[in-house]
Amino acid sequence: MTVVADVMAWLGEPSRWVGPNGIPVRLFEHVAISATSLVIAAAIALPIGLLIGHTGRGSNLAVNAANIGRALPSLAAIALVYPITAAIDPQWGFFVAPTLVAMVVLAVPPILVNAYAGIQAVDRDLLESARGMGLRERQVLARVELPIALPVIVGGIRSAAVQIVATATLGAIFGFGGLGRYLVDGVAQNDDGQIFGGVVLVAGLAIFTELGFGLLQRALTSPGVGRRAERPGSRTTADRPA
Length: 242
Fold this sequence. Notes:
Layout: H1 2-12, H2 23-55, H3 59-71, H4 74-88, H5 92-120, H6 124-132, H7 137-167, H8 180-189, H9 192-220, H10 223-226
Helix pairs in contact: 1-9, 2-5, 2-7, 3-5, 4-5, 5-7, 6-7, 7-9, 8-9
């Protein structure tokens, strides 16, 4: 009960909610680095995952590389990147860049693997039917494979987002802000209220992220969404031959 009381007292202190070290600012920093990392990782992993899922080429190499990325500890990734980014940019390279790069490395594997698995799981007979109806490969991917695989793809993004939110706290060890700052400062000051208050905030943000993407994934698996995938035999006016 002492820990609970300490956490409640720490969270209830008005000074915790104002100023540059206040909870709103730290929360914004955490969400900003997490969202940026997720967008960059998706921009890298989604095209690769969709391509290898559609063509089947390079799948072993891409999936194995993604698994290697999963095996690399995030703290080690930050430590490896830290001296490089610091040398490139003495300002942002010390604080933001190492955490950003490490979070991107953490997020790429689940997004890539799920994109690949989602496309690969589409019924091959359906694809052959689409091709037989005259759809080009790009149209097959966009109109048939992608809508069907979308729930699985979002599942990968969901997993990556939760991992990023939970792991971005490590950036505070190397000087970055975010909610992890409370854990680092709490340990340094031997302040249990601040330590576990930071834990509660990070856990709450992770749960909120999980629930948000879970609702999105559930919406995409509803029966009505499946009808959005264009039937192989349907064509728009632009697709019909003159």
